[in-house]
Design goal:
Shape: rod-shaped
Distance between the termini: 128 Å
Number of strands: 36
Length: 366
């Protein structure tokens, strides 16, 4: 490679001599080796060089990196791979070299995915699209978290900031979210009675304020509703056939608890309601009965298990035609008091106390 002068001369006898000169440049193929960083963080710069000068630089992937076409000064833009190319042309042709630059950024963490609340004793797994980081809890007395798996566990009532940290060649990033640890919600049926003569009746529920209860009617989903201020009242349609309401579950932000408590409403019965202020269990208070009247020898009565205030006959003589005690229901008869049952008694519950129950003239319990 270089310059050469070519001379051609001629000599004739008697006429002298002559010559001609031609300068030529000799080129070779070009070594287009490139030298420079192969890994940069976004925003960083570097200088690329080549074995040849006077060529042209360019980036084939400008969203990730740019290069000054003259100087070879490279700027990393965003995470990705950029092909940096250097080219030059001479009389032997065009020649080109390239190198791939890997551009990284500090981990671009997303919002933490997973439960924002847990009930005490429950667990939930937290996630981030960037894996391989570390999980920590600001309040492990309330919520712990496995540093590797992101499994959080509710330990006690309280809150904790759950932080996720990830690092790479270009730096460290963190993100966090607040988790709540709470007590499991509760719910129960507080009152339900069968109406008189095909009327409607109110079924009442109580439990954790703000919790959501799920109700079923005759084994089919009815609806979900909220225990506003800790209670909810449901009004049935006109009762012409047996209705069975089930409190299936109660839930809050942290968990769902299965309840599976039912109350059955029968048409045509006088039902014990109970709970009238000052006489909550008094058999002889008309307000404690669904029809607003004390049962007589012509009435069929029903005592439901979920009712909080179970009936008590503390004195005197009471009469019914028939009586059904639901499983776990209790009728108390005090010493000296008597209940006359003209017809049948169906009982999965308990008749308690030192008093007497007489079925169709036969003493059933003393």
């Amino acid at each position: 490679r270089g310059n050469a002068t070519i001379t051609y001369s001629i000599v004739t006898v008697g006429c002298g001599s002559d010559y001609n000169v031609k300068s030529i440049t000799i080129d070779t193929t070009i070594d287009m080796s490139i030298t420079g960083d192969t890994l940069l963080c976004s925003g960083a710069t570097t200088l690329y060089t080549a074995t040849e000068t006077d060529g042209v630089w360019r980036s084939l992937d400008t969203p990730y990196a740019t290069v000054d076409e003259t100087t070879g000064f490279v700027t990393a833009i965003a995470q990705g791979n950029a092909r940096i190319q250097y080219s030059k042309t001479n009389s032997c042709g065009s020649f080109m070299g390239s190198q791939t630059l890997h551009v990284l950024s500090a981990p671009a963490l997303t919002l933490i995915a997973g439960a924002r609340a847990l009930c005490i004793g429950n667990t939930g797994t937290l996630h981030n699209t960037i894996t391989g980081g570390t999980w920590t809890s600001s309040n492990p007395a309330a919520i712990t978290v496995d540093s590797t798996t992101g499994v959080a566990r509710s330990v006690a009532i309280g809150t904790a900031n759950i932080t996720y940290t990830a690092s790479n060649y270009c730096g460290t990033s963190t993100t966090f979210d607040t988790m709540q640890s709470m007590a499991a919600p509760t719910a129960r049926i507080t009152s339900a009675a069968s109406p008189c003569g095909g009327n409607s009746i109110r079924v009442s529920f109580a439990g954790t304020a703000g919790a959501t209860i799920r109700l079923l009617l005759n084994s089919s989903y009815l609806y979900d509703t909220t225990l506003v201020s800790g209670s909810y009242n449901l009004t049935t349609p006109s009762v012409t056939s047996t209705l069975q309401y089930k409190l299936q579950s109660v839930s809050n932000a942290g968990c769902t608890v299965n309840i599976d408590t039912t109350t059955t409403i029968y048409p045509g019965l006088i039902n014990w309601v109970g709970g009238h202020t000052g006489n909550e269990t008094n058999w002889y208070d008309p307000a404690n009965w669904s029809c607003g009247a004390i049962p007589t020898v012509n009435d069929d009565i029903f005592v439901s298990a979920p009712i909080l205030n179970q009936p008590a006959i503390t004195t005197g003589v009471a009469y019914v035609r028939s009586m059904t005690l639901e499983s776990t229901a209790t009728l108390s008869i005090s010493s000296g008091a008597v209940l006359h049952i003209k017809g049948n008694i169906k009982s999965g519950g308990t008749i308690a106390g030192a008093g007497t129950a007489v079925i169709d003239g036969v003493t059933a319990k003393k």
